[in-house]
Write a structure and sequence with these properties.
It is a single chain. The chain is α/β, with parallel strands linked by helices. Helices cover about 40% and strands about 15% of the residues. The longest helix has 22 residues, at about 410-430.
């Protein structure tokens, strides 16, 4: 009997039901942009472990770096016993992260932990307590990160009370009738009616919303946010956890925006599959935190640091930011054909930046009524055909493509063919 044959029963006994299961399979191995389950079935990966495997699964250089470090030491907590990898990685991030000013970095374990620490830093640096975030945002599942997140179900429902003094304003979503002017007007109203801007420590924003449905911020919006922050002494915090490390066609999405954030949070693609995250920001801001106020036992694990340094080398040497732009262009071109195909009539919008592209599915393009049931059916049929697809969006009706940036173009086209066939299967089932 295969291990997967009784997987559901074992899972039900061992793991909380609240931990969702996207695929009903057990992976056996992965290579670049492909998985194989224990029965040998092949899958093309359009999820990259939720934007983690930007350099592909098991990139040889990353594997070699981790193996080399494994033979030296695996853990000696940096704040008690320093080592080169942690320092070298922070030095690299200080150079790479946008901003023509002195920067400092420190390492943590996850994106949520990075955002929690960004809040601590902003409060320590400004002496203020309030924060502004956006509807549709996703910043993590820990308490402050969950409070910053702008989606109630499943992330916040039942977990209150949440952290006070967190305020949300609408994020620009033109397809849903929310313009940049609407967002900025809501922010100005918030400052007039709800919270004195002199009490706001930071405004946190994803340059492209991830879980919210791949809604990109425009350079104009970011410049307005930068101006407002400068006017009121507020710190601008860019959550680049999903957008970072070449995903959007630049090393960081903020490079598209023409402005720099005061604090940037990083994770996912940094480790090439190993858990690591970082906070990088203005040196004078990070130095406001009292000695001992930052730290973590496992943060900047030596194996993860070795992987991250190798990832950065691969991204630069293989010019994966340029390749991300080409991957995104191919996906977008295919999706726009679906928009124009009147026989489908269910692809309402296509959006994203670089190789971070999504399609929003609706019952019809006139009413724009969200169709999450179709999206679930598409992902189910795609898995049956051997393609891993991920969903997102406030209404659960968006499918996002986050293929490894190293995916061979013939595999990318094969995956898009499977996606299209799965869409046809789902439509035939639903209509």
């Amino acid at each position: 009997m295969s291990q997967a044959s009784n997987f559901g029963e074992r899972r039900a006994l061992a793991i909380p039901a609240s931990l969702t299961q996207h695929l009903h399979m057990m992976i056996d191995r992965a290579e670049n942009a492909e998985y194989w389950d224990e029965a040998g079935k092949r899958y093309i990966d359009f999820g990259a472990g939720i934007a983690v495997a930007n350099t592909g699964h098991r990139h040889p250089d990353v594997v070699a770096a981790v193996k080399q470090q494994l033979d030296r030491f695996t853990h000696v907590s940096f704040q008690t016993t320093p080592y080169e990898g942690y320092l070298a990685l922070c030095e690299r991030l200080n150079v790479l992260v946008p901003g023509d000013f002195a920067k400092k970095s420190f390492l943590v374990n996850t994106g949520a932990e990075a955002n929690e620490n960004a809040v601590k830093i902003a409060r320590a640096a400004t002496g203020r307590s309030a924060f502004v975030a956006f509807s549709g945002a996703f910043h993590g599942r820990t308490l402050m990160a969950m409070s910053l997140t702008g989606k109630t179900v499943p992330y916040k429902a039942g977990f209150g009370p949440l952290v006070p003094e967190v305020y949300h304003v609408p994020f620009p979503t033109p397809y849903r009738g929310v313009s940049e002017a609407d967002s900025l007007s809501a922010l100005e109203s918030l400052f007039r009616a709800e919270v004195d801007p002199g009490r706001v420590a930071g405004i946190i924003v994803e340059p492209v919303q991830g879980e919210g449905g791949f809604n990109p911020a425009s350079p104009a919006l970011m410049k307005q946010l930068r101006a407002l922050c400068d006017q009121h002494g507020i710190l601008l915090i860019a959550d680049e956890i999903q957008t970072g490390f070449a995903r959007t066609g630049r090393m960081f999405a903020m490079e598209h925006m023409g402005v720099a954030a005061d604090i940037v949070t990083l994770a996912k693609g940094l480790g090439g599959g190993l858990p690591i995250a970082a906070v990088t920001g203005r040196a004078e801001v990070l130095d406001k935190v009292p000695v001992g106020g930052l730290g973590s036992t496992f943060a900047g694990n030596p194996l993860s640091c070795a992987a991250a340094l190798a990832v950065i080398e691969v991204l630069q040497r293989e010019k994966l930011a340029d390749r991300a732009a080409e991957v995104g262009a191919r996906v977008t071109q295919r999706f726009r054909r679906w928009v124009d195909d009147t026989r489908l009539g269910c692809v309402g919008d296509v959006r994203g930046l670089g190789a971070m592209v999504a399609a929003e599915f609706v019952h019809d393009t006139q009413s724009r009524k969200p169709w999450p049931e179709l999206v679930k059916a598409v992902t189910r049929h795609a898995a049956r055909r051997g393609l891993v697809l991920l969903t997102c969006g406030v209404h659960g009706n968006v499918i996002r493509v986050l293929a490894p940036l190293t995916i061979p173009f013939e595999q990318l086209e094969e995956g898009l063919d499977i996606f299209e066939a799965s869409l046809q299967d789902a439509l035939a089932e639903m209509r």
